[in-house]
Design goal:
By secondary structure, this protein is mostly helical. It has one domain. Helix content is 75%, strand content 2%. A two-stranded antiparallel sheet has the order 1-2. Helix 1 packs antiparallel against helix 3 and helix 11 packs antiparallel against helix 12. The radius of gyration is 21 Å and the shape is globular. It starts with a helix and ends in a 6-residue tail after the last helix.
Length: 343
Amino acid sequence: MLYVVIIYLWAAILLYLLLGGADFGAGIIELFTSPKNRKRTRKVMYKAIGPVWEANHMWLIITIVILFVGFPEIYSTMSVYLHIPLVIMLMGIIARGTAFTFRHYDAVVDDMQVLYNRIFVYSSFVTPLFLGIIAGTAVSGKIDPHASTFLPAYIYSWLHWFSISVGLFTVAICGFLAAIYLIGEAENEPDRLRFIRKAKQMNVAAVLSGGLVFITAYLEKIPLIEWIFGNAAGLSAIIAATLSLVLLWYLLARGKTRVLRLLAGFQVTMILFATTVRHFPNIVMLKNNAYLSLLEHSGHEKAINMLGMALLLGSIFILPALFYLIYSFQKKDPEKLRPSAKG
């Protein structure tokens, strides 16, 4: 049952990156859109994420619950030593959701709309930035449980170039996913071409920031290159991601967008797999070559068994409802499709 829980943990992290990441990416796309096109971008964005944006955070909640119940030592270590970036990320989620709601449903359109827009786009950038910083810190080996002063314990553990570069890479990935998803929601050719350009720009940003991740990992003596390229599974995943990237650019150039979402999701899945498979089951790297393992630092067996059963049973009810929610909002309005009567 322990491996069932671990699979759900990995899947929840992946789905939050794919779905929640695209959600954040919509705000990132708006942030880097010219003022004259922002209104049109918002219209497409509301159609794409408006009905289901809150459901995306379900994956984050599942991740937190799995760590809290199934791996309490890992949860407490990250909560204590990374409480500052965690709080910033959570504040970004709250600020972003609040601004999204108020700017869309506020009964009075006034200067406050400007404030709502700024909060939304900047929190859309800050939230995945610190999500990436937390992920980078978890594998950086910078967390020092034996630190006796504030700065080494709670600041230097996450405020370094490697974690920041991972944060920037996460921002670029979110923007790329959002642009790819929004291409299929565009109702006219100018918007579709604009989102294609954004997808290309964000993909270039992801490649550049990904290169920065490797450079900072090398400078800070983090064995990222060995983790990814030093084993057949990781190397195969990177090759698959690269080949799918070439295919994605080819389809973009040809104007074929039907399978772009699947390709983008596949790339992100392969990247996450490549960066985690080598050091599994170690999920948090501590200073002086210590680590926290999903196998060695799991909770009580009874707690793991109950958690696994809850996840399996919950999937039976939650997943069909989620798929139906997405399906129902993707259906075309029959009233809009009905020809208007004349005369």
